[in-house]
Amino acid sequence: MRITIIIYAFFSIFFIQELHAQECKYSEYYSLTDVARKHFFKKNYKDAKKIFKLAFSKIDFPHGHDLSFALVSAIKTKDNFWAREIAEKLAKGGIPLRYFAKYKKEKWYKEFQAEFESYSKYYDENFNEELRQQIISLLKKDIEDNEKYHKWRTHEIEMSLDELIAGPSEILSDFEQIIKKHGFPNERLVGYNYILKKNVVEPYNIELLLVHIYQRGVFFLKNDIANIICDGGLAPNYEEILQQIQKFSVEHGIEKEMKERYIKYRGRE
Question: Which of 72, 80, 143, 243 is the most exposed place for a label (fewest CB within 10 A)?
């Protein structure tokens, strides 16, 4: 009887783990794309293409950065049909025609260019460009505020305690309002992130914003991180990364955290 119970418990645990893995839609996707990128950077384009194809079959909305690698892999292996298919996904996700100009010698490009207006229309009808601009602006504000803080920390500039608190508080408030209105902002909502100066497709790096918020003493979305990961909004290792972030204050909150930092770096409150 005891053996039967142990066996039953084992299979129950196994079943729960399997169910969780099935529900976490992007878990396998992240694992596969990590392997695919390793092949890509080793110039093993055939293997990279194979694994990217498998990864994309696991979900309904691949990430733009992964699509950009897959596009090169398809071109390097002369898979014109798949290259055109990937280019169309990127275009429908908001990537402008100028990004694809480097591929104008490919067989599929002329027809792709002729139909590009329809892809742009698809983006306008299915994604939130206004929200995309809000996210880009917020991420820029966060980076600037973090840089300003480090200049203060190293005595390059002076800031009052109120100023140290105000910047992060405003950023958190803006992010909270976005979450409240739209949910967690990911590429599925706003489309892909095209960087004009570098002519590349990159992630929005919302992960960095979350890291800064946690460093500032606020465990924002703590109970939602696992679900955000499973929906493709964050990489799997970020749940662990956020849990390991060190703060100065033992208490929560931006005000408490910044007071501790002010005392540490200026010797007074």
Answer: 243
